Amino acid sequence: MKASESNPNYPSKVREMTNYTIREIKKVCKDIGPRPSGEENERKAQDYVADSMSKVADSVVKEKFELHPKAFMGWVPLDVILMTISVILTLLSYFDVLPSASTAFSVVSVVLTSLAIIFTFFEFLLYKKFLDPFFPKRETYNVVCTRKAAGETKRRIVFSGHIDSAYEWYFTHLGGGKLLTTMIALAFGAIAITLAASIVSFFDVPNGVRVTAIVVLFVCLIPILMCSKFVNWKLCVPGANDNLTGVFASMSVLRYMAANDIRFENTEVVCVSMACEEAGLRGAKEYVKKHCGEDDVETVFVGTDTLRDFDDMGVYNKDMTGTVKLDKQAAAMVKHASDIAGYNLPYSSVFFGSSDAAAIQQGGMKAVALAAMDPTPARYYHTRGDTADNLDPKTIEAGINILLETAFLYDSEGLKDEY
């Protein structure tokens, strides 16, 4: 059975869930506010989700874990310090200020630049817990809401969005996605040039090359120092679209089933309000570590992130800057569910950054993501503009419709290569 066949007034019921989602987003934004990963407001929001869902779920569980939330983006100021010192040391080598120490300056510069590259690679590109021991520890929790199967559980589908919101990315606020991507490109370019210049400084080069290198290094200092403003640690954003839309759209699946007295015979439906996605997918990492392989039940994870930009809605089959392949069958299922719902979504890739689905897939659980965000990225992305006044009901409704059709499709047909 299709979701659209589960109720004669299905369109109006989906609209009810859309209105519920918007109301809940507005309430969280107004009564709780921004929700930094691992901090008090994130826990308050999780408590609210747990309390509200306890009325409709068979079970609601808070799964606690510890993390170091500022380690993930903490590499940015650390890289700025390392690269500033590296440029200065390379300049000292080229100016030959202390001839006996010039080689040492170059060696240290290469080491510092290499460290900056390593921190960026492991923390931001691979989302590894590389710098965690150097940052303060916090405790928080995921909220897991379950609607059990009527009979023997043979399948499980998990819908999820993350409750936390990011510290503001200053350049996105200042000039949108184009300025953000320009600054990132300039910063990465400056790192590469500094590394090359520090290696060249080992050799005896002509005066013209020396002067050119000095000028270029001074220019490289500009984007490096500007990146000290990359994250505004004093301002956590409202996160209405990113990603309260994902949280409450996911909860809508379970809420719809409860409101319409629908219980699958052999499929368990789980909705997770995930913590700490903005801290390097830490909540998802903890969830998959706890639940992957806990029983013999086939399980698929559907992550929902930022239901805002209708024209950019897609089924994400690649994640983590395109380096992680999400599950082919799960992606085909959500793609077909979108066809059933009448949206015919394309496959997409998270070309920059990551979603919780990547951590789930890496942890061994089949995963896919559904999202609708301008990949530029959008002007509201990680800025104070991500408010409850900036929601798009049409996109939220489409997302909920697709999630419901996905649940019913999985219950009736399971995972397949083709639908």
Topology:
Blueprint: H1 10-31, H2 40-53, E1 59-67, H3 71-95, H4 102-125, E2 138-147, E3 155-162, E4 167-169, H5 170-200, H6 207-226, E5 231-236, H7 240-259, E6 267-274, H8 282-291, E7 298-307, E8 313-319, E9 324-325, H9 328-340, E10 347-349, H10 356-362, E11 366-372, H11 393-413
Parallel strand pairs: 3-6, 3-7, 7-11, 8-10
Antiparallel strand pairs: 1-2, 2-6, 4-5, 8-9, 8-11
Kindly describe this structure:
The protein is α/β, with parallel strands linked by helices and 419 residues long. The protein is built from 11 helices and 11 strands. A hairpin with a 4-residue loop joins β8 and β9 (324-325). The protein is elongated. The mean pLDDT is 96.
